[in-house]
Design goal:
The radius of gyration is 22 Å and the shape is extended. A three-stranded mixed sheet has the order 1-2-3. It is mainly alpha-helical. The N and C termini lie far apart (51 Å). Strand 2 and strand 3 form a beta hairpin.
């Protein structure tokens, strides 16, 4: 396979699905561009299954490394994979690792990587706050004055 994916207008896919399926022999996936909505991806089922096997293995490997290796080794490798970790306090790095293992294993078992992407985005935003002293001060300072009444929760939900 030469390329990771090809781009195809969604309308072309609708008019010539056999040609699109044939292109999947040369690329890993097709990105179906849509005008009024997010793009879609089309891939072969065997490719999806292979990806799930690799993801599950990677999640288990990560968990095993964190449990068996010295913390400084794991932190160094994590810093290489996610350079923004340098801005997190030590206790936050420990919490990130714990959450990453749990979420990665759960996501692999569901064959859904979205929770891992969300977790990494959340921790990256936390690192951004720690990296900016002005922003950090704004977010962590105690509010002053009366913030007004708290609405009664709607318990009917």
């Amino acid at each position: 396979m030469a390329a990771l994916y090809d781009e195809v207008p969604f309308s072309e896919f609708l008019h010539r699905p056999a040609a699109a399926a044939e292109r999947l022999e040369r690329v890993r996936a097709l990105r179906l561009r849509r005008r009024d909505a997010g793009d879609l991806a089309l891939t072969r089922a065997d490719q999806l299954e292979q990806d799930a096997v690799v993801i599950g293995f990677t999640a288990r490997l990560l968990a095993g490394l964190v449990r068996s290796e010295p913390t400084d080794v794991v932190r160094r490798v994590l810093g290489e994979a996610l350079p923004w970790v340098a801005f997190l306090p030590e206790e936050d790095v420990d919490q990130l690792l714990t959450e990453l293992i749990t979420v990665a294993q759960g996501a692999a078992s569901l064959e859904n990587l979205s929770p891992v992407a969300v977790l990494l985005a959340q921790w990256r935003h936390t690192a951004e706050i720690h990296a900016d002293p002005v922003l950090h001060e704004m977010i962590t300072r105690e509010p002053s004055g009366d913030l007004g009444p708290v609405p009664t929760p709607d318990l009917a939900r």
